[in-house]
Amino acid sequence: MSKHCLFCRIISREVASDIVAENDDCLAFKDADPQAPFHVLVVPKKHISSLNDVDDAQTAGALALMAAQVAREGGVADSGYRTVINTNGNGGQSVFHLHVHVLGGRKLTWPPG
Ligand code: 5GP
Ligand code: ZN
């Protein structure tokens, strides 16, 4: 837990969010500035700055499983969705607590900008 980290403060409920799923390892909540009709962020409960800092398969697996779970529960699994992890500057990361974007509910374009 880092008290200066926005997503740690969401995990501890100091900052309000619209939570859609939770387990021992991860929390999922709606993105405050959705880029698609369905846009959820899945974060590990322990503070990890970026994908570069993941060193255990438990965390990586838990994030992937919860991403698929929220897509299923959000009704976008069959129509399709995209999972994105932005990393550092060129990746467009703006919050330095690892998070998986889960986007769906519309046809997503490729390649990304
Ligand atoms: P990044 O740019 O780091 O990949 O993604 C950060 C995401 O966090 C953005 O999509 C942004 O809209 C979202 N975000 C930033 N601040 C908040 C907040 O206070 N609450 C929620 N729910 N999402 C946030
Ligand atoms: Zn954090």
Structure report:
The protein is built from three helices and five strands; from the N terminus they run H-E-E-E-H-E-H-E. With 113 residues, the protein is of the alpha+beta class. It has a single domain (6-104), classed as HIT family, subunit A. Strands 1-2-3-5-4 form a five-stranded antiparallel sheet, with helices on one face. A hairpin with a 3-residue loop joins strand 1 (19-22) and strand 2 (26-30). The protein is globular. The site of zinc ion (ZN) has 6 residues, from helix 1.
CATH class group: Alpha Beta
- Please report the number of helical segments: 3
* Secondary structure: number of strands: 5
Overall tally of structural domains: 1
CATH architecture identity? 2-Layer Sandwich
Overall pLDDT, averaged?
A: 97
Can you tell me the CATH topology? HIT family, subunit A
**Strand order of the biggest β-sheet:** 1-2-3-5-4
Largest sheet: 5 strands, antiparallel
Rg, nearest Å:
13 Å
Structural class: alpha+beta
CATH superfamily: HIT-like
The percentage of residues in β strands lies in 15-25%
Q: Are any ligands bound, and if so which?
A: guanosine-5'-monophosphate, zinc ion
